[in-house]
Amino acid sequence: MADDQGSAPSVPKSVIEVTAFMPEARRDPHPPLKALRENCPVMRDEMAKAWFLTRYGDVRTTVNDRSFIRHPLNAEEGSISRQLVDEENPRRTSILFMDNPDHARVRPPLAKAFYARINKMKDQIEAIVDETIEAAPASGVFDLMEEIAVPIPVTVIARILGVDEERLADFRDWSEAVILGLNPVRTPEETERMMAGGAALEAYFAELMERRREAPADDLITDMVQLQASGDAPLSDDEVRINLQALLVGGNLTTTDLIGNGVWLFLTHPEQLAALKADPGLASQAVEEVLRFEAPVSATSRIAEADKPVAGCPVKEHQVVFCSLASANRDAETFEAPDTFDITQKRASHVAFGGGPHICIGAPLARMEARRVYQKLFERYPDMKLPEQDIAWRALPFFRGIETLLVEV
Ligand code: HEM
After folding, report:
1. How confident is the model at residue 7 (pLDDT cuts 50, 70, 90)?
2. What is the number of domains present in the chain?
3. Counting atoms of ligand 1 from 1, which one is nearest the CA of 252?
4. From atom 41 of ligand 1, which residue's Cα is the shortest distance away?
5. HEC profile for the chain?
6. The domain that contains 292 carries what CATH number?
7. Where along the sequence do coiled-coil regions lie (predicted)?
8. For 284-341, how does the pLDDT look when each residue is reduced to its tens digit (9 = 90+)?
9. 123 CA distance to ligand 1 middle (Å)
């Protein structure tokens, strides 16, 4: 039906068609997502062996539903989720894929220590943002991703964790290497780099934990080893290390993309930028609108532990249910004029950070960094413009971010 309407896209038949693997969806995933939302809001993809939900109400209900589980080993044979399992050690995982009782044991002490750290370090975090923006070129054309959006999150997390200043460059290299793990179509060289980076990072974290036990410092690694020693956090060394590492993998690229997507949106919507400049108090609402409009993580997933109806469809035990966060955030049932980027409206809450027991643990940090960037960047560069360029979106499935964003100042 949609085909007869001229410009309306045909309704996708597979999950892959709406991911950044496909050049058209990479450029703009929203038309095919809209077609699904309107014509096939609960799609079963037999190739990917997954269900795919696109309506806000269904996505919200599903991410919040505590009867679902997460670990990909529990997904049905042949499901694309199974590719996320570490083949050498399939049960080893951070909280991202942990189920209860482990998730309920590991996440609360980690979250408590992490949030206390962020609050304590707010001024330092904002100073890193300011210094990075100050250090960018004073005039000419530069790549905003390279100069600002990439370095800020990794420098911030390094400072929170307690990485030695002289190891910061190595730490950045290793972090970049482990993020290659998010790309299922890596070259053999990339896989090698990823493995080497992961091993170096693991060894460095183990060393830091040992050193902090002997000589405590003012950082998250010290917080975690002290919690362990006090018996308040019944976590093994491996669990502490894997979950601290997860803060890197989960937080770096995503926050980079929140910064990059936001700057691109402001520069392509000058009236919105003018509104922000006129009232910098809008920065927090602006962060929420960027998260809604171009969610850096476009989907999350859940696995059914037993047969159950989901959005009126018969989902079987072990089947995977993908929740399109990008689509839910543009659902006209929930958001008025959903395809309009408008930082001046107070809108319903988006689902860019997922929801329920697995809701993003890094949301407060990502918000803090992005808010400061949006405030400071346009203060330093009041005349920033976008020079002519083809915007290249990253080809990582389930992520939405820009590779290179040239800006003129
Ligand atoms: C704009 C930035 C970010 C976005 C869009 C984002 C998005 C997400 C999403 C969608 C999930 C899955 C939630 C679910 O399934 O319900 C998640 C989980 C997670 N995120 Fe983030 N994230 C961001 C930043 C961060 C940061 C800064 C950190 C850490 C420093 C982080 C660490 C994690 C971790 C550890 C999880 C797993 C939580 C769990 O399963 O209990 N994220 N994130």
Report:
1. low
2. 1
3. 27
4. 358
5. CHHHHCCCCCCCCCHHHHCCCCHHHHHCCHHHHHHHHHHCCEEEECCCCEEEECCHHHHHHHHHCCCEECCHHHCCCCCHHHHHCCCCCCCCCCHHHCCCCHHHHHHHHHHHHHHHHHHHCHHHHHHHHHHHHHHCCCCCEEEHHHHHHCHHHHHHHHHHHCCCHHHHHHHHHHHHHHHHHHCCCCCHHHHHHHHHHHHHHHHHHHHHHHHHHHCCCCCHHHHHHHHHHHCCCCCCHHHHHHHHHHHHHHHHHHHHHHHHHHHHHHHHCHHHHHHHHHCHHHHHHHHHHHHHHCCCECEEEEEECCCEEECCEEECCCCEEEEEHHHHCCCCCCCCCCCCCCCCCCCCCCCCCCCHHHCCCCHHHHHHHHHHHHHHHHHHCCCCECCCCCCEECCCCCECCEEECEEEC
6. 1.10.630.10
7. none
8. 999 999 999 999 999 999 999 999 999 999 999 999 999 999 999 999 999 999 999 9
9. 23
